[in-house]
Amino acid sequence: MSILNCFFALAAAFFVAIPGFATASDALTVDAGALANLRLSMPDSAASKNYLGLKGADTFTMPQIKADTVIIEIFSMYCPICQAEAPVVNELHQLIEKTPSLKGKVKLIGIGTGNSAFEVEVFRKKYNILFPLFPDEKFAIQKALSEPIRTPTFIAIKGYGGKGLKVKHVHIGRMTPKQFLKEVTAASRRK
Asked: CA angle, 96 as apex, 176 and 161 as ends, to 5°?
């Protein structure tokens, strides 16, 4: 193998392995049952509890979030793509909240994979995150994914109220809010 061929093979492997360069994954599958059973800490803020329609004091699961569709951003505070995309994801949240057909029906949360509550709070404050974020120190969300987590990953789910959680759309890497919402809306209409 020539040096030039080795260089191109290494370059291709490098760009495929970097989080954020991918836009979607046909290979990534999400186990809806494992995702439905994932327990997250109840938000401390009344505003976050109200936004998600949650009651209680301890933990909650995804099917308890009062929304037709929940978009989960899997991020890490150490991911440079997640840091760069934080304003874009805030824009996504604002677009949802400003669109009458989506407000109250689509909710956005973030799960900081491998991040402690302290790390998630640092990320929230540094990037002025407008939607609820939750720590996942032990990589529990990994149990719902068929391959190692790449951040950021966005998962759109349906299934409030115990009707059976369904994964409707998965997107890995950078996104544009309007296009992403079109994809989620189209996927959510499918059975």
From this structure: 120
What total number of domains does the chain contain? 1
Strands 166-172 and 106-113: unpaired
**Residue range 115-173, pLDDT digits in tens:** 999 999 999 999 999 999 999 999 999 989 988 989 999 999 998 766 678 999 999 99
Whether 114 is covered by a domain: the verdict is: yes
Token pair, residue 88, equals: 């874009």
Whether omega before 100 lies within 30 degrees of 0, making that bond cis, reads no
Q: For position 89, which CATH number holds?
A: 3.40.30.10
- Which of 38, 33, 82 shows the shortest CA–CA distance to 61? 38
Return the structure tokens found at 62. 């995804």
DSSP assignment, residue 30?
B
